[in-house]
């Protein structure tokens, strides 16, 4: 699982996160800000991910939706000045939140801004039990119940995203996207999931309702934990509401990040961390993932992109593991297994996150093209 809550070994218990994080709308950097900067150069995505029209600069706004009586918060970026090619629904890992996919300090690596600039609506939700739904009863915290809620949200998206009165669904501090196109989800929804969010995405891809998804791009999924990580997780009592930070040599900050220089040093500070408390029911699902994942993966019937981090230190991630992944996903119509250079477990919190997110968007484009051919 993710993750940031586990790398705070010396920080003590994690403080609760405000139910709705107030995030000022963020626009992608303009020409003046990017002059001479390679990091802000015009994105050059992989084959199939090039937008057919020049989209205007997108922005990120906080949102909150009522889904079957459960408030789900998150962050939303929509393409401006062109048609919606599709929608990427991003699912963060355990002990994190929607901001995993978009940090103001690293806007150039944001999946939301990058996706919207290439014609994709990107919605990163605080998964059930996080953000606005923190405190969800334990009986509905597990991944199967989370999948139920996320499928309900997906069913609502065409109406929510086609509604030009975005103030009805965005946080009151958000700007209204009056220039955003009103054509709903586009070609369909592609899931992007990290760690625990990746396990959730795979479970969704194995259900009958999942056949309507374009695909699932997952990273940091624990087919097997390292012995030290497994031992630390086994020692956590289930008689608590939230899992405590893990203790042990295989649960330090370095377990989840690459070498010094591959990530923003601010992530090591209390102010810079992207963390939240982990509901115990989903922690149990994460702990048991090596036992349940093979069966889950055998049911997946949508295209899958599986990314392992070059410096992964909490899960098995070598060539033999990737070969096993491809075999276990035998029912999926297409499987792409790959290693992302320059990152540790928390892939999207590294400087190389932009490259990873371009791969995710390219995969979504390929899924979109495949869906078009079979319509």
Give an account of the 3D structure.
This protein has helices at 31-34, 111-117, 143-162, 196-205, 227-234, 253-256, 280-287, 289-297, 319-328, 353-374; strands at 26-27, 59-67, 70-77, 86-91, 120-125, 189-194, 215-219, 242-243, 278-279, 304-309, 335-340. It is an alpha/beta fold and 375 residues long. The chain has a single domain, classed as Alpha/Beta hydrolase fold, catalytic domain (Rossmann fold, 3-Layer(aba) Sandwich), CATH 3.40.50.1820. The strands form two sheets. The protein has a nine-stranded mixed β-sheet, sandwiched between helices. It has a two-stranded antiparallel ribbon with strand order 8-9. Strand 6, helix 4 and strand 7 form a beta-alpha-beta unit. Helix 3 packs across helix 4. The chain is globular and about 50 Å long. The two termini are 36 Å apart. Residues 4-51 and 164-182 have low confidence and may be disordered.
List how many beta strands DSSP finds.
11
Give the second-level CATH assignment, the architecture.
Answer: 3-Layer(aba) Sandwich
| End-to-end C-alpha gap | 36 Å
Strand content: 15-25%
* CATH level-four homologous superfamily name: Alpha/Beta hydrolase fold, catalytic domain
Residue stretches low in confidence (pLDDT < 50, at least 5 long) are 4-51, 164-182
From the 3D structure, determine the CATH topology.
Answer: Rossmann fold
